[in-house]
Amino acid sequence: MTAGVDPETEELLTLLEDEYARTIIVETYREARSADALSDACDADPSTVYRRIDRLQERGLLQDQQRLDPNGHHYKVYVASLEHVGIDVTEDGFDVTVEYAEEDAADTFTRLYEEFSG
């Protein structure tokens, strides 16, 4: 454990240290991506990418959305929730702040509609 860092912060920093997790966040920051697209971007097996997706979702750094393909099948895409991470050194150790992206009303409506109609 890093001195002056609580276990939850340590877990966050360890996750952000992971190259695959960082790639997933960057790839999903502006545009939703499927797990297959993320697997290609990471040059990793889908199972590896799904493990990182799960960890990122557990920490609230990634959200999934349901989409409908032209054949009527549902599939998931992923969007980064992470907007900013700040690390400050204090007398007591490190102070880590995390800012999350806010979903606008149109995106919220679309996501809820797609989830409800699925």
From TrEMBL:
SUPFAM superfamilies: Winged helix' DNA-binding domain. InterPro entries: WH-like_DNA-bd_sf, WH_DNA-bd_sf. This is Transcriptional regulator, ArsR family. It comes from Haloterrigena turkmenica (strain ATCC 51198 / DSM 5511 / JCM 9101 / NCIMB 13204 / VKM B-1734 / 4k) (Halococcus turkmenicus).
